[in-house]
Amino acid sequence: xxxxxxxxxxxxxxxxxxxxxxxxxxxxxxxxxxxxxxxxxxxxxxxxxxxxxxxxxxxxxxxxxxxxxxxxxxxxxxxxxxxxxxxxxxxxxxxxxxxxxxxxxxxxxxxxxxxxxxxxxxxxxxxxxxxxxxxxxxxxxxxxxxxxxxxxxxxxxxxxxxxxxxxxxxxxxxxxxxxxxxxxxxxxxxxxxxxxxxxxxxxxxxxxxxxxxxxxxxxxxxxxxxxxxxxxxxxxxxxxxxxxxxxxxxxxxxxxxxxxxxxxxxxxxxxxxxxxxxxxxxxxxxxxxxxxxx
Length: 294
Fold this sequence. Notes:
By secondary structure, this protein is α/β, with parallel strands linked by helices. It has a single domain, classed as Rossmann fold (3-Layer(aba) Sandwich). It is built from twelve helices and eight strands. Strands 2-1-8-7-3-6-4-5 form an eight-stranded mixed sheet, sandwiched between helices. Strand 1 and strand 2 (about 35-40) form a beta hairpin. Helix 8 packs antiparallel against helix 11 and helix 10 (about 185-190) packs antiparallel against helix 11 (about 200-225). The longest helix is centred in the last third of the chain and has 25 residues, at about 200-225. The chain is globular and about 60 Å long. It holds the Pfam family Cofac_haem_bdg. This is ChaN family lipoprotein. InterPro entries: Cofac_haem-bd_dom (IPR007314). Keywords: Lipoprotein. It comes from Hymenobacter fastidiosus.
């Protein structure tokens, strides 16, 4: 039998082993860090044993948002309600409003008018916050107020020196030491250009990113009661390669069992591209032509 014919005959078997038929149109696929096909239940069981789970999303990906909601519901069940949800999408200075909403003190209209929700809040994050309100588990906004990250991006971390003590309470304790050798930050140098003419500007951008990462890590460390699972939702760049937020979180508690998910886009879903391997403990692959929320 010709070699090409053998390959064609083996293709249906290979696809079946990967978990789908040749005529399937899957909306997503899951893989382990090594690129082995994984099933949702397998991932769920492993994540439920962690102390902290980072779900690295693409902010405009509807599949990731849907899966986050399913995962939150299932982890809540498996951990018997001992779950805390952390969200990059809310900043530290609106935490009192987040608490008042999830405990039923504010209406949807009141909360959304005051808490500076992201433009895609209604479609992408509101179902999660409503779930917390219904099931009575805590939601923690972890991000630095964007106006202070903007100050740093324009003028370096020294721009924070004049802030008042009450304002600094919304940030990671200062001064902040930035490790420019973290892989994510080194990649930012390559992305933005590291030549002498742009070095200062690129360094400020990295400092602003570090301020976000370190602030989220600081408040996540405070938010997790003993025995609880903390599920944190953030842009994938903040947690890919166990970098970013996780690097700062490990400084305060290296013993935490941390697992990660990263969301990537690919033209084909049959196998995980090599450049996406090892990004996270589990990699969620969605079609490159999937509809976006914005």
